[in-house]
Amino acid sequence: MFLVAGVVLLTLIYFLAAHTLKEGTPEFRVIGTNLRVGNVSCPGLPSVGTVDEINAAIGDCLRGRRELALRAFLNHSLAVLLGLTVVAFAFGYAMAGRVLSPLGRITRTAQRVAGSDLHRRIELGGPDDELKELADTFDQMLDRLDRAFESQRRFVANASHELRTPLAINRTLLEVQLADPGASPELVQLGKTLLATNERSEQLVEGLLLLARSENRVVDKKPVDLAEVASQAVDQSREEAQAKGVALGGARAQVFVQGNGVLLERIALNLVQNAVRYNVAEGGWVEVVTEPQPGCAVLVVANTGPVVPAYEVENLFEPFRRLRTERTGSDKGVGLGLSIVRSVVRAHDGSITAQPREGGGLVMRVVLPL
Q: What is the mean pLDDT of residues 244-259?
C-alpha cells in the first residue's frame, strides 16, 4: 500500500510540475534590430543578432532549462521513491513479523505436541486480543488431551496387571491339575480345553494391550537391523510352518532402521504367523524379504493361500476382522495381528500395504524410514 501510494503520488506530482513549468514560465521577445542581450542562465545565447535569431535562442534556452528542471525533479523523486520503498518493505516486514509471531509460536507448540509432547503449552502473553484467545483455547485443549492420555496410560498399566494376573493363576492351576497322574481322562480333556481357552484369552489380552500401547509414536528409537528382526520371526514360526507343511524362504538383506526392536519384531512375527496360518493345505510357501531402498527400508511377506478379494484387503487391518466368516472357533488367532502391525508401523512413521496375489494369498509390504 505504501508503494502504490508512492507511485501514484510521484505520477501526479510529475504531471502537475510539468504543467506548472509550462504555464508559469514567461516567454521573452526581443523587439527591434541589432540589440545586445546579456546571458547569465543561457550561455549559448548570442549577444548580437537579429530579432528572430535572439528570440529563437531564448526559446531554445527556456526549453532546455525546463527539461533540465524536469529531469532533476524526476531523479530526486525516484530517489525518494526508492527510499520510501525500502522503508515500506522494512516497516511491513517488521509489522507482519510482530503480528504473526504469536501464530508462529502456536505452530511450533503444535508441532512439538504432534511429537507426543503433550506437556508443552503456549502461554502467550500480551493484550487480550484474538490471538491470545486462540492460544488460551489451544492450551485448554492440550490440558484436556494430556489428562485423557494420562488416564489412558494408567488404564493400560492397571489393565495389564489386573488382566494378566488371574489368567496366569488359571494357567498355573490347570497345568498343575494336568500334571496329576491320577487325573481321569475326562478331567484331563476338560483341563486341556480350559487351558486352550485360557491361552486364547491371554493372547487376546496381550494383543489389546500392545495395540493400546502402539497407538503412540515411538520416541526412544535405536538402530535395528530389519533383516535380523525378520529372521528371528521366521525362526519363531518355523515349527508351526513345518507342522502345516509350509516352506519358509526369502532373501533378507541387511538394512538398519530407527525404531523399537521389540515392536519391530512384533511386526515381522505377526505377518509371518498370519502368512503361515492362512495358507493352503499342501505345497504352501512364505517368502520373507528385506531390502534397502532410497531413504527407506522395505519388508515384504508374500504367501500362498486362499483367494482374497481386493475389496476385503483393507478390512483385514481392522480389529477382530478375519478372512470371510472366520470369527469364532478358529485357532488362527484373535483377529488383532494386522491391526497391531498397522498401529506399530504408524508409530514408526511408516506405511503398510497389502495386495492380493494372483492364484491366492497376499503380498504384505512394510515401508519404514531409515
A: 90
Q: What is the pLDDT of residues 264-298, one digit of tens each?
A: 888 898 899 889 988 888 889 999 999 999 889 99
| Grid cell of 73 as nine digits | 525533479
Determine, yes or no, domain membership for 346: yes
- Report pLDDT digits (tens) over 36-50: 444 445 666 666 667
The CA distance from 292 to 233, in Å, is: 19
Asked whether residue 222 falls in the same domain as residue 364, the answer is yes
CA distance 370 to 258: 6
Domain range spanning residue 12? 1-107
Do residues 264 and 141 share a domain?
A: no
Asked if 341 and 236 sit in the same domain, the reply is: yes
pTM to 2 decimal places: 0.53
